[in-house]
Amino acid sequence: MSQNLIGIYVVSAVERIVVAIAGRKEPPWSQSSRSERSDNGMKRTYAVLLGIVLLFATPGLASADVHSSPADAQKNINAVIARGLTQRGVPFTYGGGNTDGPTTSTDTAPAAPEATTSLLGLIPAPLATPAPKVPGFDASGLMVYSYAAAGIKLPRRSGDQYDYQGGRKVLPAQALPGDLIFYGPNGSQSVTMYLGNNLMLEASEPAVQVSQVRFNDMAPYLVRVIE
């Protein structure tokens, strides 16, 4: 049944409801009312019911903000993957990455301990100075950056991404490109993005890279954010 026929059918049904409420045999606009107050009340009643009908009879109006079309979903997934892949080779930086790109670590690097005299009276060589902070991504930061291509702001930590309310958990056997793969209890250790063909995009030492999917310590579910 076409949308127009559905709309006509539902409008006709509403007319009958309004007539029944008013105790009349015809729609309210086909007769003069007994009083102006009664007529105004019927008009308001019909306007409300007609608005409800139009909401559900107009194609796409009722559900436009609930689910995207398959074509739009695939377009967004492609954009997410493409944005993530542009960062291959960017250094791994613990705590790095946001919706705008790579960042320096938000954590303070540990200071090198002072040299001490050994039992033989020799001063050991000083420990290497921690490498200077460089802009980069950690695992969850890369996912935040990638999904920003679709206007989606993921939580910053992988464990929170695993429980992201805007996503749906799926089994590994149901994996599709763009799904998030998690590691550790409740996804608390790391997160990567499935690319298809048993490949994934990840931010790990030494840099953002494409690698084979690892199954050790994988969480029982993946998370699908776009569908």
From TrEMBL:
- List the Pfam families: NLPC_P60
| Source organism (scientific name) | Mycobacteroides salmoniphilum
PANTHER family the UniProt entry points to = NLP_P60 DOMAIN-CONTAINING PROTEIN-RELATED, PEPTIDOGLYCAN DL-ENDOPEPTIDASE CWLO
Family of this protein: Belongs to the peptidase C40 family.
Mind telling me what this protein is named? Peptidoglycan endopeptidase RipB
Task: Indicate the segments annotated as coiled coil, or none if absent.
Answer: none
Q: Which SUPFAM superfamilies does this entry report, sorted A to Z? A: Cysteine proteinases (SSF54001)
Keyword set for this entry? Hydrolase, Protease, Thiol protease
Q: Kindly state a single biological-process term from the GO annotations of this entry.
A: proteolysis
Give the Enzyme Commission number: 3.4.-.-
Is Lyase given among the entry's keywords? no
Protein origin, superkingdom:
Bacteria
**Annotated GO MF terms:** cysteine-type peptidase activity
Q: Where is the NlpC/P60 domain?
A: 74-227
